[in-house]
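Exam prep: given the inputs below (a chain plus adenosine-5'-triphosphate), describe the expected output before reading on.
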Amino acid sequence: MTAPTTPLRANDHHQANDIEEAERAHLTAVLGQVRVAVARSGALAARTEESHREAGAQLAASRGELAPEEAHLSAFELNRLDAQAAVAARSHRRLEKLLASPYFARVDFLDGDDAAARGAGADPDASAGPDAGGTVPGGGAPEVTYIGRFAFTWENKAVVSDWRSPVAALFYDFEPGPAAFQAPAGERRGTLVRKRQVAVEVGRLVYAVDSSSSVRDEVLAQALSRSSDAKMHDIVASIQREQNAVIRDEAPGTLVIQGVAGSGKTSIALHRVAYLLYRQKERLSSQSVAILSPSRVFSDYISGVLPELGEEPVRSWSLHELASLLLEGIAKVAPARSFADEADAVRAERAQVKGTEKFAQSLAAWLDGQLAAGGALFEPHDLPVGGDVAEAAWLAERFSAYAPVPFEERLDLVAGDALELAHGKTFGRYAHAMPTRRELRSRLLRMMRAKNPLALYRRFLADTGRSALLKMAARGTVEWEDSFPLVLCAWAFRGADGFAAAAPVRHLVIDEMQDLSPAAHEAVSRLFRCDKTLLGDANQLVDGRVAAPPETVAAHYPGARVVRLMTSYRSTFEITELARRVLPVGGLVAVERHGEDPRFVRCGDTAGMLAAVGAAVGRWRAAGRRTLGIIAKSDFLAARYAELIGRVHEVALITDETDTYPGGIVVTSVRLAKGLEFDEAVLLDADGRQYATEADRHLLYVALTRAMHGLTILYRDEPSPFLVDVPRG
Ligand SMILES: Nc1ncnc2c1ncn2[C@@H]1O[C@H](COP(=O)(O)OP(=O)(O)OP(=O)(O)O)[C@@H](O)[C@H]1O
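Solution:
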């Protein structure tokens, strides 16, 4: 990292040196304290770990000799020590991270009353020195706060404040001048006297600059021009104001974030999780947050961010993993088939119908109708209960009375009523012949016209003239597109509380929300009753569906709020401009970071394509970049190319089964590249044969927007019509 090159003002050179000198001295002092704290916390972590181990060994040795209550107590003590050891280890790890970079910013704030009384403005020159925090005309020192990834306290004094603390909002939301933040005791108004970027790497001060908007633009540009990695990184030092508003939005319910490609949605969602974990400690823990992401490789790619921010990793599911989990004991789920690979037109048609809003809405309405009083699924007949008979009409009336309770619970309630009635009528004479509630419930279940979720789904399809839509992929295995409709049917039986996977989740993050079919949104909305953050881009569709505005997605989540992010940060201006011409996105703002123009290469045939790939690999190596994504339209083509390219270069193919993002050179389909980013991208076969339809236009948009710094577009004879009005070299 180098210091921003923004010209400083007249006497700035001296001032800059003064600032750096003072900040260097401050850093040395803080690092000294952190070093002592690391040594202490290391010793504490070792001691607690040792106590835990000893207690475990003792418990194991005395097993069998302890009375049950003693054993219970020891186990309890062991758990306590275990938790203590985990806390100590975590705090030690955090402190160790502080050694490399204890903070990244500093704000000097003068409370409103003081500022008003002394007529103080935002005048950083009035400072007595960077370390002291300076004085303002008329005296009175502003409160100086250093902001880092985690808080650090020394002798009961806050040395570094967490980026999520209320005071840190000053750094993200205000320029020097009038400012305010929400302190625990209420709003504090006053003046932000100074805002400073302080870059520290490996314990050394790289630069310290008082921040104006041009400095911050450059700090951002620098962050964006770095080389990409096999893991996504935190962006705490350069979160933008519009992003901060989303991260710190604490209103309950569902937040839907529609953002253009590269607007930082995934980064924001992860920072938001870290923020909520910090702010809502008593309500949320890493065990109660879950992230739904498009693929396993994506889960791996984002897995480093929360630990970087000092939080434990949270549970993460791919969409397929979640569907399989929710359908455990009901059906297996066939893998999703990529639309770009689909050769079976009938199957594609089936999938297309099940991906529509209309299908989801008709299923949801049909299920609601069946669950409502008067639903026609329960066809009771007289039922002997002990010495009594529960009459069909009475059973039907009880069943209706409990509407809209889910079927399983409702049958249980009716069974309970029938037992109570029979006991009452027979005065206990038939106690020996009384069935259990459970037995009665299964007899009642036999009176349902659909006895399980799959039968219910079949009945829905039959009732609405769509029976041809269901083809089992194999025995007991449904096609991917049937999985969430089937989850909805399971929900009608069990209700939201009947899914072990959903129950512990108190905040659900759904990344790439456009990947979820309307039926999937409806199912997730009904099963997960917790707060949710959804994020995605309606333009990044990779399954052939028609783009729907985020409001359509939000309509599945009662009371959901929608925010839009329009600035694209990932790619250079030149790449974003090209993407914008392929798919005009109204309101998109390309961040001003320039690079070379995308390169277009006519290749003629496969041999020419491979030669051009070789040249692109050579250029990428020479540039010293870390990741190169070679992107084919379909999974099938990606596999073929990986084999061919792999004969010359070391490459990794990304498939649905890939669970670690390898970095280096990867070959992948557009579908699996979505959400990822590469220093440079090479698009294979970007011609009219491959990219011709509207659905293909969206694929092309996704592929182009994966590139951060460089883009090479290879085509055989003529480029795709979506690229033709683009100037070519
Ligand atoms: N404020 C920021 N400071 C530094 N880097 C940022 C900032 N915002 C976004 N970025 C970077 O921009 C890139 C895109 O971010 P991210 O992947 O979160 O975007 P996205 O909206 O989820 O993208 P897509 O929808 O295209 O997959 C990442 O490299 C991220 O680090």
